[in-house]
Each structure stands twice: as C-alpha cells, then as structure tokens.
C-alpha cells in the first residue's frame, strides 16, 4: 500500500506519466502555434487547436517561486517535511508545480537553477518529476 498520494492518471495525462516512468520529462506542444501548455490540455489555450503533441524537454529550469511546508498539508506528507513546494519554470517556457529535493530548504532561492529528477511513488507504478539544484 502506498504511503503517498497518487496523482490520477487520465487519458489526457497518461503520456506524461508514462514518460516520467521512463525517466523522461515531456510537455505538450501545439502544432498550430507552437505554444507549450502545462498542465496538459485537450485544446491549446493560445489558439484553440486540438493538435497537441508530446515533446521531450531538457528538464532544466529555475525556481520561479516556492514555499517551505514545515507542517504536512496531509498526513501522507509528514515524513517529507520540511519540504519545498515550488513552481519551476522550464527553459522551454512552461511552469510546473513540483518539489525541490536534494538540498536544505534554506538553500532554495528564486532563480536557482534546477534539473529534473524522478521520484518513484512507493509501490505504485507512478514516478513523480521533482527537481534538484544543478
């Protein structure tokens, strides 16, 4: 049994989770206007096109904003606190809500360079993209 919350996988988000399980970060790209939305969408929010494809990205970015959770927002996070909850802006443009791991929370700062890493969720088949300082 998992001791972590497991994000739902839908037909729309399945390619994202499948890529993460392979250790790859992917985002959608609109064939109509090249906009890169995140989170996944059925239609491009920029032009309305429905031809969105999944493209691998570098996994490099920077901390756009963050907070340090010292009290668990849910009991399953108790062992992870304090934890850095961040919005990371990818080099390719989109911003992702994620966690910054691999450093003391006091070391995290806005603009800090980060690189994607992948964190398996207990005994589930899902792997979470998280970020480490680079």
Task: Explain the overall architecture.
It is a single chain. This protein has 134 residues and is mostly beta strands. The chain has one domain (14-133). The protein has one helix at 14-21; strands spanning 26-30, 52-56, 60-69, 83-90, 95-100, 113-120, 127-133. The strands form two sheets. The protein has a five-stranded antiparallel beta sheet. The chain has a two-stranded antiparallel sheet with strand order 1-2. Strand 4 and strand 5 form a beta hairpin. The radius of gyration is 15 Å and the shape is globular.
Topology:
Layout: H1 14-21, E1 26-30, E2 52-56, E3 60-69, E4 83-90, E5 95-100, E6 113-120, E7 127-133
Antiparallel strand pairs: 1-2, 3-4, 3-6, 4-5, 6-7
Q: From the alpha-carbon coordinates, what is the Rg to the nearest angstrom?
A: 15 Å
Mean pLDDT across the residues is: 93
The percentage helix is under 10%
Structural class: mainly beta
Continuous helix count = 1
Briefly, what is this?
The protein is mainly β and 134 residues long.
Key terms for this structure?
mainly beta, 7 strands, 1 helix, 134 residues, five-stranded antiparallel β-sheet, globular, single chain, two-stranded antiparallel ribbon
